[in-house]
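Worked Example 4.2. Consider the chain below.
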Amino acid sequence: MQARDIFATRNSALPDGEVVQRVRNGEKGLYEILMRRYNQTLYRAVRSYLKDGDDVQDAMQEAYVKAYSKLDQYKGDAAFSTWLVRIGINEALQLLRKQRTLHVYTDPDVRAERLTQLPDTGQMNPEQRTIREEHKRLLEQAVDRLSEDYRAVYMLREVEGMSVADVSLALGITEANVKVRLHRARNMVKDALMGMHEPAAAFGFGNAHCDALVAAVMARI
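Applying the procedure from the previous section yields the following structure tokens:
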């Protein structure tokens, strides 16, 4: 077993609070646990605002570096993932503001609802995999067409599966607003899909992207 695999196996069950405290106490290498644990969550949050893949990776990297530098400010009042998502969203919005100032980025359609999953691709025949990928592509297009007031809600609640309370904290809006935007976003996505069933698990953050991001952040902290 490789050293990285041994590291992951030995520490994967550590609760977030313990990992944070040990990183604060100098065990910087443990920060990788938090990154690998929440790469998918952070990716989907940032992807709600940014469409360009390089921009998403840049914002995620900045979010992780900023979160590391501010670990002493994390008080545990909210889940670490929620705290991290708020930092990631702020980084995405800062990048958007810079791009809009330079007239490079056209207004994105942002905010989003959770996607049900098809069976694991290993259990599918080639035709089923093709259908799954087509559903995924259409679903991602439908979500991308949502306006900024809806896409992040849809992504965090429906794609990532965060609770209404955590989405409310992450986005700085009331729980009632989360529910209203989610309901409207669902309807808009359904209309766009025009009766398509069983959407795939969209907006995945694959292992290669995960490894590259972890390596880049660990080199900077």
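DSSP finds ten helices and no strands in the chain. Residues 59 and 171 are 16 Å apart (CA to CA). Compare this with Example 4.1 before moving on.
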